[in-house]
# Entry
Amino acid sequence: MIIEQILNAKGREVITLRADNTLREAASLLDERRIGAVVTLDGEGEIIGVLSERDIVRQVARGGGGALDMDVGSAMTRAVITIGAEAKVDEAMQLMTDRRIRHLPVVRNGRLTGVVSIGDLVKWKIAETEAEAQAMKSYLSAQY
# Structure
């Protein structure tokens, strides 16, 4: 299974913000859309950062409620880790585990085409394992 297949099934909508949006706006968007992170793009559509719930919480812990007025660009992670759409799910899971991230922007030909979360990947791995187990049960039932 490759990442492209997960995006085809779950959809490719990517929620983005600008670096000049406030953390308050970002938090409202995360809550409204029930997501854990947003991608930040520049004017040409290039990825310049990722802002997660953790980034917002970290800023509030350091600066109190006033931190919600700071801009996304000041709080986002700028060293964005991405993965290609043709990458295998296991590769993405390993990358997320090693780098301790929960959201992974997916790129094709240098352009953002989707985002997968660790939850998306785990869901697909469970479905794959269940399908293999069912196939094995069917095979064994046919043999005996």
